[in-house]
Amino acid sequence: MVVLSVPAEVTVILLDIEGTTTPIAFVKDILFPYIEDHVKEYLQTHWEEEECQQDVSLLRKQAEEDAHLDGAVPIPAASGDGEDDRERMIQAVVDNVCWQMSLDRKTTALKQLQGHMWRAAFKAGLMKAEFFEDVVPAVRKWREAGMKVYVYSSGSVEAQKLLFGHSTEGDVLELFDGHFDTKIGHKVESESYRKIASSIGCSTSNILFLTDVTVEASAAEAADVHVAVVVRPGNAGLTDDEKTYYRLITSFGCPPRVLPLPAFILTGEGIHLKIRIYTREFCKCAYVYFQNPFHRHLSRRQNLSSVKRKLM
Ligand SMILES: CSCCC(=O)C(=O)COP(=O)(O)O
Ligand SMILES: [Mg+2]
């Protein structure tokens, strides 16, 4: 196990869900099949409701944008009031949803409908969200240490709140200061992270983003957000370059030994060195060097040398 420091300037932890707080298996084996199994029945039951019609309109708009894609499923506008027309539209929405899900698309339209469908299942106690065992204790510790903790997931804010409000560990929603979804922008776009910082009222460099997806980490890093890639059982593998480049963590947990840290620590595995002595002054430059050992310019390396000298 390797101890990684978090720079003193970090005051906000931004968490991804799938593959970070929650096993991918829970999403792929429980949440998504629920949608595929129930989408037709859901549409038939709720079709006349305003919320359902808004979801369908958003899906139709998305389908228009997707028209050029291979296998895209169009959603026709209503052409009459008849039962046949309604059934034809419902079937088109079902096919569109299943097509999007087969590609694991993260469109706002799909995520909005999914969130509305999961609501009934969570509220009826049919599903309880799962978190890796280190997640809830670590979030509590971070908050005690004065950090703010936010969630940024492709899952809609409503779905996120259902998840954290109905988990195997009870209702832990109050542990989070706020939630962001793709309405603020996609997770692979740097601008989204700037907007999140602005919405929180901090600088991007005050944020540490934890995600399992390196494209998301890269987009966040380009916006000057600190990042660490989360390696969990069941996550997609990383390339050797990714393993070298990114800080990797396998747990949010703090090690049992209490260190005189400027902020707090995460644990992980990888090529990173272990710093035994921390001071607020040295922590940041060492962290920057470890995060990107091969690409930082000389002055960063000089910083590290001075850290090493002080540590020896
Ligand atoms: C309430 S999140 C449900 C999972 C989901 O729909 C999803 O797309 C997760 O994506 P993430 O950005 O959290 O990896
Ligand atoms: Mg994820």
Short descriptors:
single chain, 312 residues, alpha/beta, Rossmann fold, Transcription Termination Factor Rho, Rna-binding Domain, Chain A, Domain 1, 3 domains, six-stranded parallel beta sheet, two-stranded antiparallel sheet, 11 helices, 47% helix, disordered C terminus, binds ligand L4RZE5RM, binds magnesium ion
Explain the overall architecture.
- The protein has 312 residues and is an alpha/beta fold.
- It folds into 3 domains: 12-22 and 129-249, Rossmann fold; 31-123, Transcription Termination Factor Rho, Rna-binding Domain, Chain A, Domain 1 (Orthogonal Bundle); 263-311, no CATH class.
- The chain has 11 helices and 8 strands.
- The chain has a 6-stranded parallel β-sheet with strand order 4-3-2-5-6-7, with helices on both faces. It has a two-stranded antiparallel sheet with strand order 1-8.
- Helix 9 (240-245) links the parallel strand 6 and strand 7 (248-249).
- Helix 4 (108-123) runs parallel beside helix 6.
- The longest helix is centred in the first third of the chain and has 23 residues, at 24-46.
- The chain is globular, with a radius of gyration of 22 Å.
- 36% of the residues are buried.
- It binds ligand L4RZE5RM and magnesium ion (MG).
